[in-house]
Write a structure and sequence with these properties.
With 91 residues, the protein is an all-alpha fold. It contains 3 helices and no strands. The protein has helices at 2-23, 46-62, 64-80.
Length: 91
């Protein structure tokens, strides 16, 4: 029984390690090696990059109050250990 358990554990560790190496770096959340949100494969002209940055900044400015409201609600809720209307998880 002990040998079976050891062999099974080794197989699971090997399978997990092979999965990690198969997926490789850069497959998780977050930026994928690009900068300013353009990504690795983006081939934008300088004008397009400037336009993208302007749109991104505009969105950031427009949603600042909403983000502050969410952060404030979460901070308040965390103090009391209760989240009255939790933000739905988006997967």
């Amino acid at each position: 029984m002990k040998k079976v358990l050891v062999v099974l554990t080794m197989v699971l560790v090997l399978a997990g390690a092979s999965f990690v190496y198969a997926v490789g770096p850069g497959s998780g959340p977050g930026p994928r090696g690009g900068c300013l949100g353009f990504g690795k494969g983006a081939s934008l002209t300088e004008e397009q990059k400037t336009q993208f940055q302007e749109l991104r900044q505009k969105f950031h400015d427009e949603t600042a109050t909403l983000r502050e409201q969410i952060w404030q609600r979460d901070r308040t809720s965390a103090r009391f250990g209760v989240i009255p209307n939790p933000t739905p998880m988006l997967f």
